[in-house]
Write a structure and sequence with these properties.
Elements (H helix, E strand, L loop, with lengths): L2 E6 L17 E2 L15 E3 L3 H6 L5 E14 L4 E11 L2 H8 L3 H5 L14 H16 L4 H8 L2 H23 L4 H13 L20 H8 L3 E4 L3 E6 L4 E7 H6 L1
Antiparallel strand pairs: 1-4, 2-5, 3-5, 4-5, 6-7, 7-8
Length: 252
């Protein structure tokens, strides 16, 4: 049976930031708690990759491991005296085992760091489509995605993407209406789950409601809305490259 371990991108344990992980190594803790508590001191690993994902709180890489002396366990993890590191899980296999774009969760795209491209009519049309999606969502985009994804996995995904994307765009968008930018980040995260075709509270949106936002995102445009005007921002300084008022939208 395969077991999996999530570690940080530098190949150190999330728990202490000191324990090094590499293929072929036998990883041991400095001490072991011999109680039946699955959360006690030891080396933890999970029976599925998604279980490993559910325990991460930062961007991660993943290893297949072989447990050595399982001491205690629950549904999502086992606590061991040691584990042997068998191999690292590659990009394509991560996505296949997880059923969503797991690799991109841990290596998210910041649209403001992409190279500049010229604004096109298609980009403007996608902004209009995105305004319609956002207005049609019951509650927030974040809440919609939360309600449609397994909660433990969603918490870890949100933390990983939020830490990587939001922190890096915040300096650029600090003066913008943060709620609309947050919803853009939420829409990007929703797009990382292509297997979800029915979104809770928003069945009328269709199977791929995030497509207009994703098309803008991967071209380097970040939408914002201040209650009156929609804007598209580009570049590390979040320069405004297009704007349209809500009143103009209603006339289209």
């Amino acid at each position: 049976m395969s077991y999996y371990k999530a570690v940080n991108l530098n190949r150190y344990s999330h728990y202490d930031g000191k324990t090094r992980w590499r293929v072929g190594a036998v990883v041991k803790p400095d001490s072991v708690d011999n109680s039946l508590n699955p959360c006690g001191h030891g080396i933890h690993c999970s029976p599925t990759l998604l279980d490993a994902v559910s325990h991460q709180r930062k961007a991660s890489r993943y290893y297949e491991v072989e447990p050595i002396n399982i001491i205690a366990w629950d549904k999502t993890k086992s606590r061991c005296a040691a584990v042997k590191v068998i191999r690292e899980i590659g990009k394509a296999e991560q996505d296949e085992l997880a059923g969503f774009s797991l690799w991109e969760v841990n290596h998210p795209v910041n649209p403001l760091q992409l190279r500049h491209v010229n604004l096109t009519k298609t980009d403007k049309d996608n902004l209009i489509k995105w305004t319609s999606v956002r207005e049609s969502v019951w509650g927030s985009v974040r809440g919609l995605v939360w309600g449609s994804v397994r909660v433990l996995v969603w918490e870890s995904v949100w933390d990983s993407v939020w830490d990587s994307v939001w922190d890096s765009v915040w300096d650029s968008v600090r003066g913008l209406v943060w709620g609309s930018v947050r919803d853009s980040v939420g829409g990007y995260i929703g797009g990382l789950f292509p297997q979800i075709t029915i979104w809770k509270h928003a069945k009328n949106l269709g199977s791929d409601p995030w497509r207009p936002l994703l098309d803008l995102w991967y071209r380097g445009f970040l939408p914002s809305f201040d209650g009156t005007t929609w804007r598209l921002h580009q570049g590390i300084n979040a320069d405004v490259v297009y704007e349209i008022t809500a009143q103009e939208l209603r006339l289209k």
